[in-house]
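General statements about sequence and structure are easier to judge against a single worked case. Part of our work consisted of pairing the sequence of a single chain with a tokenised description of its backbone. The amino acid sequence and the backbone structure tokens for this protein are reproduced below.

***
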Amino acid sequence: MGEGVVLSHLSAAVLWGIPLWELEPGTQVWVTRSNTTRGYVRGPIHANNCPLTPHEVTAVDGLPVTTLARTVLDLARRFGPDQGVVAADWALRHAGLDPRELQDVLGLQARRPGVRAARTSVELASRLAESPAESVSRLRMHQLMLPRPVEQVEVWDSRGRLVGRGDFGWRDQRLIGECDGRVKYDQPRHGGRPSDAVTAERDRERRLADEGWRIVRWMVRDLHHPARFARILSSALQGRP
């Protein structure tokens, strides 16, 4: 395709290993060109036209690609804050991305389409998120103006022993919030059986209850229905079953 063409967006995400939130990489190759006035979609190529500075281009496995920070913000601008926060959280936690790099690249995109989603992704990015579902859960809480939780909250007993930890926690309400999926039970850690994971979880709940803590859970599908998610969490924060 000539000089000045680099892999970007979904193709860059695949090269970097960034998890995609309810997106498929597809069969097209996504590229960005800074030496033309328009993009196009033709056959196996999805070409975007957008300026690229030398600091926004690198190489992965010998292939020219947008940097990790630029890739994160391209994903946010093109596909929205759900994907943006997932990508930003992953980059901070698993790839060691410096948050200042995100801020620097964001500063170059002030007038570009989708910059609001990119800005939200940078503002909410956290290296504490352990899964894409946690990232989107935190974003939903922000969008719904729900009380901000402590991430990866830990509960200790009076003897200084760790009782348990949760994805999110509201200490004043002594409430732990978790986005549950089947993975932790279908694929338990350390090679155990699913029944072992269920037993361990019940024991954890009992220990937390003994310390006066409650647990509220939601599923990934609830994140697609903000009103339902808000009811689940608001009820729990107000002490209602």
